[in-house]
Amino acid sequence: MNTLRTAMLLAAMTALFMGVGYLIGGSGGMVIALLIAAGTNLFSYWNADKMVLSMNHAIEVDE
Predict the structure, then answer these.
(1) Using CA atoms, how far apart are residues 3 and 9, in angstroms rounded to an integer?
(2) Which of 4, 12, 32, 53 falls between 20 and 30 A from 22, CA-CA?
(3) Nearest 10 degrees: CA dihedral of 32, 19, 16, 52?
(4) Which positions ≥6 away from 18 have C-beta within 8 Å?
(5) What are the C-alpha distances in Å from 58 to residues 14, 32, 47, 55, 62?
(6) Residue 53, Cβ neighbours under 10 Å: how many?
(7) Beta carbons within 8 Å of 30's beta carbon, 6+ residues apart
(8) Chain center to CA of 36
(9) How far is CA 6 from the centre of its chain?
(10) What is the pTM of this model?
(11) CB 33 within 8 A of CB 20
(12) According to DSSP H, which parts of 1-63 are helical?
């Protein structure tokens, strides 16, 4: 269920970003906004866990 919620959130943010891109630059701006949104979504997907752990000053536990 969390994966579905995450996908819906990322899709909604991408749609919002594309809407703003369309308002600013028409269909060309929408395509540019889609590319930027895809890049930020991929970055967030791969690095969100590391960012949250570093914000909380978490350290790795040794065995």
Answers:
(1) 10
(2) 4
(3) 20
(4) 30, 33, 34, 37
(5) 30, 36, 15, 8, 13
(6) 12
(7) 18, 19, 21, 22
(8) 10
(9) 10
(10) 0.71
(11) yes
(12) 2-55
* CA nearest to 39, candidates 5, 8, 13, 1: 13
Which two three-digit tokens encode residue 4?
């579905």
Whole-number Å distance between alpha carbons of 19 and 46: 25
pLDDT the model gives residue 59: 85
d(CA 54, CA 2) in angstroms, rounded, equals: 22
What is the pLDDT, as a whole number, of residue 22?
95
Confirm if 33 and 18 have CB atoms less than 8 A apart. yes
